[in-house]
Amino acid sequence: MVSGPYSLPMLTGIEMALALACMVMALWFRPWRMLAGPLLTPALAALALLPWLWLLPQKMPQGLQVQLSGACLLVLMLGWPLAVLVLSGVVLAVWLLGHSDPAAALSQWVWIGLVPATLALGIGALLRRWLPPNPFVYTLGRGFIGTAAAVFLSGVLLETAQQWAGGAPHEQALVARWLMAWGDAFLTGMFSAIFVAFAPQWLATWSDERYLKSPKP
Q: How far apart are CA 106 and CA 19, in angstroms?
């Protein structure tokens, strides 16, 4: 759920800087090389399905905006660099198919896509560093709880940026973002568990050698 005055020049400048930084760093890794393997299928599926999820707020009654991200699941499936490129294609489709202006599309790209994806990357790195390599740590930690934390923190950052840039505070905004974050967490946790069981080749962040190896005596 992205709300607030998209026309604030200061906020738009922040969003443009964040988007440019993410794109430059993602392109530096040349992630398109990963499309030569099994990740082509989930990447194309994300480009086909995710725009309709992002268009959902435009199709609902005024004042009732249900916004799911899907960015954290993309990071688990594709890795952060390729997920950034796919999210750029998603927001382009949303802008072409919907009726939002470029500033609103930019805000959605940053706060619903890039920021949660980057936070999910950081949370995943912390979990790999401090917790044992266990399938439940992956599905519950990175897929479920990590997604809830990343999406909620992204919403908190957006609300803070809007108020810092001169926007009016929105009552109950953090409560709504907290509830929506758990919706994203449920979907990401469910799909990550399914993919671990039936299609681990669609998870760039999953490794049988790491998560399924026998414990040391």
A: 8
List b or e across 81-98, with b for residues whose CB sees 16 or more CB atoms inside 10 angstroms. Answer: bbbbbbbbebbebbbeeb
Q: What's the pLDDT tens digit per position in 25-82?
A: 999 999 999 999 999 999 999 999 999 999 988 877 665 567 899 999 999 999 999 9
What's the number of CA atoms in the CB half-sphere (13 Å) around residue 203?
Answer: 25
User: What radius of gyration do the chain's Cα atoms show?
Assistant: 17
End-to-end Cα spacing for the chain: 48
Assign 157 to helix, strand or coil: helix
Amino acid found at 2? V
For residue 106, give the amino acid letter. L
Better pLDDT: 174 or 105 = 105
Residue 180: φ, ψ to 5°:
-65, -30
pTM score of the predicted model: 0.90
